[in-house]
Amino acid sequence: LEARRHNFLAAYTDIRGAGALAWTDISTGAFHVMACPLVRLAPELARLAPQEVLIADGLDADAVGVIEQCGAAITPLSPASFDSRSAEARLQSLFQVKSLEAFGNFSRADLSAMGAVIDYLEITQKGRLPLLRPPVAQVAQRMMQIDAATRRNLELTASLSGGRAGSLLATIDRTVTSAGARLLERRLSSPSTVVDVIEPRLAAIACFVDDINGAEDLRGTLRRTPDMDRALSRLSLDRAGPRDLAAIRNGLSEGRAIHGAMEKADMAPLLRDAAGALAGHDPLIDLLEHALVAEPPLLARDGGFIATGYHAELDETRKLRDEGRGVIAGLQAEYADVTGIGSLKIKHNNVLGYFIETTATHAQKMLSPPLSERFIHRQTTANQVRFTTVELSDLETRILNAGNRALEIEKTLFQSLKQAILDTHEAISAASAGLAELDLATSLATLASQENWVRPVIDESRDFVITGGRHPVVEAALKKSGEPFITNDCSLSAEPDHSALILLTGPNMAGKSTFLRQNALIAILAQMGSYVPATRAEIGLVSQVFSRVGASDDLAQGRSTFMVEMVETAAILNQADDRALVILDEIGRGTATYDGLSIAWATLEHLHDVNKCRALFATHYHEMTSLAERMAGVENATVAVREWEGEVIFLHEVRPGGADRSYGVQVAKLAGLPSAVVSRAQAVLEALEKGEREGGDRQKALIDDLPLFSANPASAAQPARPSKLDDRLKDIHPDALSPRDALDLIYELIDLAEN
Predict the structure, then answer these.
(1) CA separation (Å) from 24 to 49, 114, 427, 661, 674?
(2) Could you tell me which of 647, 643, 591, 649 has the C-alpha nearest to residue 621?
(3) Which of 337, 456, 624, 719 is the most exposed place for a label (fewest CB within 10 A)?
(4) Distance (Å, rounded) from C-alpha 643 to C-alpha 630?
(5) DSSP for 207-222?
(6) What one-character-per-residue DSSP string does 697-717 give?
(7) Contact present, 34 and 45 (Cβ < 8 Å)
(8) Which run of H or of E encompasses 345?
(9) pLDDT tens readout for residues 204-243
């Protein structure tokens, strides 16, 4: 179980066309449900990435296919597990309420999905349910909609290679607690579309940006806080050990210290609420601090986790266990003093156990009152007389059983401490959430301070104005090699009932895809409540982010690269609303030139006329730049390059206007294609361009006139013959030259170069 990630169990149901998705993480107690029609199922599963999905036997094949594609294990249950009436009773029993209205208004589909989760947990956990929080209904309209393809293309939480490294999440994660890391992933996966939710998060970060030293001090304390959510879960499932008790103690103790430090500070409302949840735990903290040792063992059966002085009987039992000889010696001294017999001894053998022994000369004294009333005669030998007492027999029994008795007492105390924690689990969960909120705010403030990020302006408009925008992942990679990231501006301000599209042209390797992705990432970061990598950002709420970038096939589904591209493009055109942000890269490249051009052309027109969204559209079809003259919402932009002595230099700057060529041959040369291939490609390109200018059959004639590829391959690859200057340079040994010899040599080389 990864400490920094959730581990979701989900259930999907469909009741007469009304779908619902419920999910829980039993390791933290999170429990959510949302209405989820089939068309939204794939994006939601991509957002949650559940490990297991419960379905009813006989579920629609299309829904099963969607779940299979998300990669989760599928567990079919009987329809009875999804019965909504039974589910309602099950939930009422679990949360000990007569009505679920206090938690929200749930549809039959909602109840069905939640009930299936509870039923499955009762089966798998053998009736011992985890501490689930009351269900929270999520509303899709309050979250930015991001489909599975877009999440994959933008590498939000995982890179295209499948690992966490190289993703946006890995790049921005500065959290120091497990709960904070999980909260960061939730926020990044589910950006908000409500200004009143986003602004308090930004205000919380701003408090720490203004006091970055205070933020670092707080992060130092947060580093010492354990994962209380998962400790609570283990305690509720009876899978816990003494260290889970210590985790609650330590977490609440550090929380109390944080609350004390922040109590008088001028804080944003979100931080005030988070800090407030850390107060009021003094009785439980004091109990646990008094009861537990500083570093308890892993398992309760190992014992030794209850502190000395907490339980009198346990202390006495431990003394008997650990200091039995000393206790016997003390009792022997007491008996010698009472009897006045200095030679009295307490001994032990396997027949009598512990016994009191005196010499035969003292027998009469020991057998006469008043000593005979306390000392019970056991055995007489030739030279010794042996006795016992009630307290010695009792002490013997306690010494022999002290080890087991001490462990039994500790186990009993463990159960009582566990119950004391579970009785206040809601307050502890709130404290854990408060610590996670503080961790996230301080980590994003640290990120903003270190990387020079800026607070975005979020409003209800349809503006999208980014100044000096950067791609956070690419910038981080360039920093490692010491290279600067070239910033770019983006303006997609849309008038009412109109779209705002930038048609971006330019060569491969110039940075078009980076520009597209960085603006989508800036929108997501801003609406999750984070500062953004730019010098200024004004963003009107984005309801959806769609991305069609990259090239890949889907062999398992029998779909070619072009088919995958068309499926993803169709999803965008069918679903994008006027508040969506769409980035499209090279639509139509997977088929014939004119087919691809026509598809790209029609797609751009549909985005402009029907979807009326904000979009960045990158293409190599330069013919499309004429659309800017015909459509009010379309602007041309290009990524600047320079040619220098036959080489292409990428400036990575986005400028107004269109590109006049693609520089594909130059990029092929950079990739290492043989010089003969590059030369041939250049010749064919020039012929095609000339034929296109002259029109008619001239293009075909020019191609027919081209020499065969193999006509003179050697000439293109033949190295130039060394000159006299080259020969002279080879003979020079700089270390052997005096200043005068070096000056004479320069004049000599100049003469050779001129001749």
Answers:
(1) 12, 9, 19, 53, 57
(2) 591
(3) 719
(4) 31
(5) HHHHTHHHHHHHHHHH
(6) THHHHHHHHSPPTTSSHHHHH
(7) no
(8) strand 345-349
(9) 999 999 999 999 999 999 999 999 999 999 999 889 999 9
Give the C-alpha separation, 42 to 719, whole Å: 58
Which long-range contacts link 209-214 to residues 24+ away (Cβ below 8 Å)?
209/445, 209/448, 209/449, 209/455, 209/531, 212/445, 212/446, 212/449, 214/265
Structure-token match 């794939």, residue found: 42
CA 465, distance to chain mean position in Å, is 28
Q: Measure the CA–CA gap between 459 and 90, rounded to whole angstroms.
A: 43
Give the C-alpha separation, 233 to 27, whole Å.
5
Report whether 240 contacts 483 (CB < 8 A): no
Place of tokens 């002595």: 645
Q: How far is CA 150 from the centre of its chain?
A: 17
Q: Burial, 11: exposed, middle or buried (Cβ in 10 Å; 0-12, 13-18, 19+)?
A: buried
Helix/strand/coil (H, E, C) string of 378-421?
EEECCCEEEEECHHHHHHHHHHHHHHHHHHHHHHHHHHHHHHHH
Tell me: the pLDDT tens digits for 580-612?
999 998 887 766 677 888 888 899 999 998 989
Angle between helices 390-422 and 312-322 (to 10 degrees): 130
Place of tokens 């537990």: 292
Place of tokens 């462990």: 407
